[in-house]
Amino acid sequence: MKYRQLGSTDLSVSEISFGTWAIGGSWGQVNDAESLRGLARAMDAGVNFFDTADVYGSGHSESLLAEATKGQKDKIHIATKFCRAGDIHDPAIYTETAVRAYCEASLSRLRRERIDLYQIHCPPIEILRDGSVFEVLDKLQAEGKIRHYGVSVESVEEGLLCLKYSNVKALQVIYNIFRQKPDDRLFAEAKAKGVGILVRLPLASGLLTGKFTEGTVFEAGDHRHYNRNGESFNVGETFAGLPFEKGVELSRQLSWIADGRGNMTRAALRWILDNPNITCVIPGFKNVAQVEDNLGALEVPSFSENELERLRSFYGQDVHPHIRGSY
After folding, report:
1. DSSP-based three-state secondary structure for 222
2. Residue 327 lies in a domain
3. Which domain holds residue 154?
4. Where are the beta strands (DSSP E) in 34-189?
5. Which residues are catalytic?
6. What does each C-alpha distance from 11 to 8, 74, 264 come to in angstroms?
7. Model-level pTM greater than 0.85?
8. How many domains does one find in the chain?
């Protein structure tokens, strides 16, 4: 495992880390025992950073992380998020009273005295423009409740706005072969300001595994069923904003990336890791096999310049016109 510095912070994190949305819920059925085995396998491989949120299974993934990392608080870093347990458009949930309550609840579930990275969870751009919430986070940081803070964003515009606040130390963004826009400007500006980049949804909700067909059916409780067209939250969070059938078609056209790299999953993650402006990639998982597959990206060859150019052209010509939602 290799480690990368999270922007200008004192945190050094594994370049492959893991997100825990899937083991909390909203990705179909999960098994807690298998989730814990997956977390243990990741840590055995040198993973020292996990991303979660208070709404992942209504706090369930935070509780699982507490169990998995018991006795390793100094070695395993945890990032969590807040605001989506309420009405994200209501300014009241960004006040000191509300944010402090969210923070204390997460600390309790995580069984920790400090959160390593506390992130605002995809707030509306109006909240970011107002900026009052950052003053609240400054206060929590001064008290030692949080070590650093950042923002999970939906769009490049939101990310650039966050860079105007000097204590924002990390941005969490959607970035994958189907969502390449952040690399046009955002990543370079973030690096220049000492802001780390966490990449979520690196496999475009599974499209970039190459395992789906147009006839694939998802469980009713899986967001890939109930948010396919943005019915519940930003459509960009599901299949990178692509219509499912179009995404499946495009993924077939990308099957070549697996040549010499084992499979599309490992290739898609390798493509992200090859970007020097990325701090880490945080794929999700529901079992040990998926953890192993994601970790396999560490061992596969990087992309050549010709391959990278081919993927840039493919994105611009074939993918970008079909993306929906903020990006």
Report:
1. coil
2. no
3. 3-322
4. 49-51, 77-82, 115-121, 146-152, 168-174
5. 56
6. 8, 11, 30
7. yes
8. 1
